[in-house]
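Feature request disguised as a bug report, sorry. It would help if multi-protein outputs had a clear separator. Right now it looks like this:
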Amino acid sequence: MAAIVVMLVWSLLLASSLHGSHATTPANKTLGSSLTSGANSSWPSPSGDFAFGFYPVADGYFLLGIWFDKIPEKTLVWSHNRNTPAPIQSTVNLTLDGQFVLIYPNGTEDRINNGEAASSASMQDDGNFVLRNSFSTVLWQSFSSPTDTILPGQTLNMGQRLYSNANGNMDHSTGRFMLELQNFDGNMVLSAYRFADRGYWYTGTINDKIVRLVFNQSSSFMYLVNETATIYSMTNNVPRPINDYYHRATIEDSGNFQQYIYPKQNGSKWESVWKAITEPCFVNAVCGVYGFCTSPDNQTARCDCLEGFSPLDPSNPSKGCSPQAPIERCEEYDPMNYKVVVLNDSDFLNDVFTDLERIHNSDLESCMKALHEDCYTIAATFNNTDCLTKRMPFLNARHSLPSTKIIKALIKVPTGTNREKSGGKKISRSHFLLQVGISMSSLLALLFAAIAIYYHPAVQRYRSRKPSPNADTMEISLRTFSFQELSEATNGFSNSLGRGAFGTVYGGVLCLEDKQIEIAVKKLEKVIEQGEKEFMTEVRVIGQTHHKNLVRLLGFCNDGSHRLLVYDLMKNGSLSSFLFKEEERPSWDHRVEILLGIARGLLYLHEECETQIIHCDIKPQNVLLDNHNTAKIADFGLAKLLMKDQTRTSTNIRGTMGYMAPEWLKNAPVTAKVDIYSFGVLLLEIICCRRHIELNRIEEESDGDDLILTDWVISCVRLGKLEMVVKYDTEVLSNYKRFERMAMVGLWCVHPDPILRPSMKKVIQMLEGTIEVGVPPLVYAQTFEDRHYCTSEM
């Protein structure tokens, strides 16, 4: 009841504010005319069907806009300041020098027209607000800069876009969805543009030089035309007579584009006469990250959170959800902290950006196991024969329509039940005591055994010998070490520095040539079965690399089943630890220096060393910093130790989630371009100083669209607001042009098509400014991997 009362009061406030004192106001406004928000708030069209002025929104703020003024539901069709509502006592003035200006109470001015002096302004009966000069020539019109709606008589030209609202009539700011008549091919596309241009509907009108969307005023039909003919029809039935109805076409916060009518006499609501999407849950990202879409009436999308997830914004479920328990990174992944939930008659829209691996001839149990054990995956679709896994975070989970196939959605849910708040695992007291007892007994047994072995005469004779270099050692200028030597140097491998995809790294000290040097020893795991010769061949390739930006290999151990590599110790740790500190942000100049160092190291591996090396796992954890904070790439060449044929992918070595190039997931040939893709993601992380994906990112100003860094950067570039990515980094903003150039390089690198990614040499040239950086194709292009999801009308 209270909510109903609030809505009635708000409706009365809206009606009184909009009607204001415009009843006797003439249609044409001369120089010096003005409106003030909260007072004389609007100028009507001659018929009174439309009004221009200050449209009240929440919290006492106003949008300078145009709305249908004769109907109870004052439907907004255009606004100038949708993202910056004006407070009360703001004014809009047609100044004496012919400028149309919105002035905020603090004196800030927002010029609306293009600067050419106007003589008059008028609100027309077709819903178009127009500025004219003394010759009645139109200088500016609202029809030329639409927001989310077009009206009869209005056209949409190539390159123009409509953007949805963020949340219906509650929030008119720019939302997640876009309708664009693409400038480069004439195709009209609906896309979830804030999620890396995930297009979900298109007209297919490509390769036409001039295309326009026409909303015909006499017939109220919408269609696309080229220079000579109609090439795509939308509306095919509108009630007659046309003039008995109001008409509009709007892209909605649900992602659909619909044409509506409203009876002028005794009308009560807007009725749809045409829609682009007939199945609401087929809209990409309609329920945001981790959201689940259902549509019981097949008219509207309902967004919910699945088990183990909570809404980012309870007042707006379409913003998506967040895991209730933390999702671990792969370095910390423990399957015991997750469970797999199976949803019947549910699936995910296919998505080239999140699809990971298709497992053929699978059963449900195998699909669940693959999902549960793989840290890279968060969800899967099972259709009774195939299992398609998806990376984090998932989008487009939905209740599927009836089908002849049995479709199930599998969701991996972090339980949090196996972890204390401190991060430790929960175990019972009796179980804990039992584990302690077993561990102490084992340690004592090992201690006595170690003492006996240490003092055995054979071991003492062995220890007295110094290792002698062999032919292989001399040939590749590396030193061979026994397993015993490295065990002693690392104090029994007790000082773990970290664990990665190739094994665990331990710190230690070696005495070489009467000098003590600090070393990092990597114990290789999951090394493929190969002979001495093959192992030495791969080590030889690594040993022959010498570059300022590569970690230096000092030696190796090939002792029985033990395979270890010995490197210089990088005392300042990984780039990940350096870059993502919570307390402070590394300086911009230092970040640029690190970025260029990584690029030069990769160029050496790809083009300058004797044998080309494809790293296959470029990420911040595999870039280390020396005493002078110089960036050095680690783990290069190790992919060959786990994979005999580096020209093909393997589930055992496929990079790291978020840095993996799409070709890894398609069993396509792997080239150096996989490193270019990973470098592009790393580049954006470095210049933006944030992780490529922040799974638990919940901020007051975030609606979930910035969870994935690459997607966020693309959407900001498309909006012309790239500075939003680094709005809190004043040092970067003062070097904005350089930042912008580097961001564009990053987007070139992460293009899904490896052919369009630049070489490492060209990347460096673009970063250094020696060659121009064009606009990346991702800024314009749409991806349509699954065109069968579009409506049958196409």
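(second protein starts here, but nothing in the output says so)
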Amino acid sequence: MPDDLTNPAEATPEDENLPETPEALAEPGVAVMTYDGPKIEISEEMRTSYMGYAMSTIVSRALPDVRDGLKPVQRRILYAMRELGLSPNNRHLKSAKIVGETIGNFHPHGDQAIYMTMVRMAQDFSLRYPLVDGQGNFGSIDDDPPAAYRYTEARMTPLAMELLEDIEKDTVDFVPTFDNERREPSVLPGKFPNLICNGATGIAVGMATNMPPHNLTEVCNALIHQLRHPEVTTEELMAFIPGPDFPTSGLILGQKGIRAAYETGRGSVTMQAKVHFEQMDNNKTAIIITELPYQVIKSKLIEQIGLLAREKKVEGITGVNDYTDKTGMRVVIELRRDVLPQKVLNYLLKHTPMRMNFGVILLSLVDGGRGPKTLGLKGILQEYIEHRRTIITRRTRFELARAKARAHILEGLQIAVQNLDEVIQIIRQSRSTEMARGRLIERFAFTGIQAEAILNMQLRQLTGLEQDKIEGEYKELLKEIARLEDILNDQRRVDALIQKDLEYLREKFGDARRTRIEKTEAEEINLEDLIADEEMLITITRDGYIRRLKMDTFPTQGRGGKGRIAGKTKEEDAFEHLFMASTHDYILFFTDRGRVYRLKAFEVPESSRTAMGMNIINLIQILPDEHITATVPIRNLKNAEGYFFMGTVRGEIKRTRIAEFANLRANGLVTFDMNEGDKLNWVKLTDGEQNIVLTTIKGMAIRFKESDVRASGRASGGVRGIVLDGDDDRVVGMDIASDDSDLLVVGANGLGKRTSMEAYKTQGRGGKGLKTMDITARTGNLIAACVVPREGQENLRLVIVTEHGTGIRVKVSEIKTTQSRSTQGVKLIELREGDSVKTVEYFDASKKPED
């Protein structure tokens, strides 16, 4: 169909019968409404309408006025309560009456919206200084809902009265209500600095405010200082107001975020629950929560902690109980005896609202409530000062006008008393009040107001005593007028009155700070802080699947046992590496291509014994054609002294200082310039003075001094360590040797033996070495060789993992020590048909309890 049917050139025959006017579409007898006004672009209309809605939301609903700190609904509720006479010394009135009065006269919106606003103004855990004195159920910190407004009662608090003080003295502008039948204040006089003391929250269109509450005593002191020193800096103000003071107490960690918020109007304050540890029966420990961060719901926090414990996301919590009563908050988190309380607490601080940030946005309506603006601490305090200057000035003008009006009347009364007989005669001779008024004005030059006052004068005022009172009152009025005029002519007098009001508020309503501010900044709780520092077994398969296992995964068995399944692997996969590491260690992964990568041990997912694990490419950025061949756990890289001693399958070796690996990148670093066809396979930590032993697949071993290999740069190549016996020979083990240790070798068919290192004389590097095992079809080629210390050997355990994933843990002391280097050894593991030994590792079981 053509885009423009009004163009005859583009019309089709089917379009000729289309109706041309709206009337043609109408049914007979049905009127059709048409619009004959100017056409409006819909996008422009949408923009204009939405801007109107947005400004209405910003100005008339969501944001507080910087002068009194109230939103319109809050202001109307307080004014309605004043109109109902609900002062602190009067009785409470049903909340339903207050809500109805507010809706009917000032705020025609939903009753629940108004009631919940009033409820929040009464909650001592929501407002630092409540403005409504509630009687009945007004909710709780556990998020219990308040009772319906027909059951609760309320009246204003004394501080609410301070907000309204002098409102009847023309201190603020009044505007018509929504129905034009009454008038309401556009702002309250606000002697109490409500905005900074109680804070505010609100979400408008495209903007929001989130102001924390503060301590009244500190705010009054800061305001007094700023009155005296207008050029005060934010840093100086923070000596009086160090930070927010939340109604629920708690802790604030550091002042960095506070300072940013006070200077720019935006910042982040880290809040934390107040906790301590208590010893319980049976040597158990409990975490006790006595204070919570602001706006944290206690019941939901307890529920969340219980859920984390049930889902085993945090270990060691046996119960969470709430013993809160009228004396204060007390939440008890019971722990097992074998857990570290600080570890559990760190986890809860990181994963629950026990520690959270308060995002400070100091946004409010300024310029007489006409528009929003973000102010810093000094700006907010200055706006309060300017507002109070306006209020006191307007109040003084009102009182001055009233004093002058009264003095004017007293001047007339004095003249009348001095000419009393003549005044009485004029009044008696007049036929009407109007005639008497006119004759008095004509005779004594009275004004109409004076003449009216004389006509209304009571007979008792004609006594001598009353005449003295009139004269005394007049003299006092003259002094008062002079004082008021002096105030209007000197801003210092105005500021002195503001200071006097602040001192009054401080003395009558000021209290001690509740929230403690810690000097130390909140440190990021690293995942490492949440993980217990314990020894773990880490396995890596040939295809790169890595996992972390607890030390008791494989039970200790006698030599020659069948072992336990070490984990599931893919049919074509097999275990490649097994080593021990503390959860807080770094693990350096060295690849066959001569590159190195870094990972924290706890970042390796902990798995069950039968799980496959996670592919390591999800943890480090290993290249697709690389294969991990060596791993080194190390606690510290930056300050570590010593060397990495490296060896390849073709017998190349090199030595590099650890310090050269301090700045490892995510994509790894080159650590060995490899020859074609060679692979980096072993890396050991040394102090530079060790002996090294290399063992080959054909049962040869060579021992030489580490110092025979000079230290070289990280990216350099190596030198020859041992001469291999043909192209089918290769190195199967490289380790650190000493005379008080044994060389333990294991063949592919599960046979193994220990030989004293004293049987291997020290040679120069690059030789053929000595025979260490008689290689036959019964033993199979050597698979692994490692050096085990002789001292404390009864605590050493050998972990053997086969190609099919079977694992066994054997006591090293049960492996026979042979006197001859060329014997075949004893059976260490009973292999299933088609299986063979893949990897071997040993560890000291005395560091962990046996299962």
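Even a blank line would do. Unrelated, but nice: Residues 377-418 form the longest helix (42 residues).
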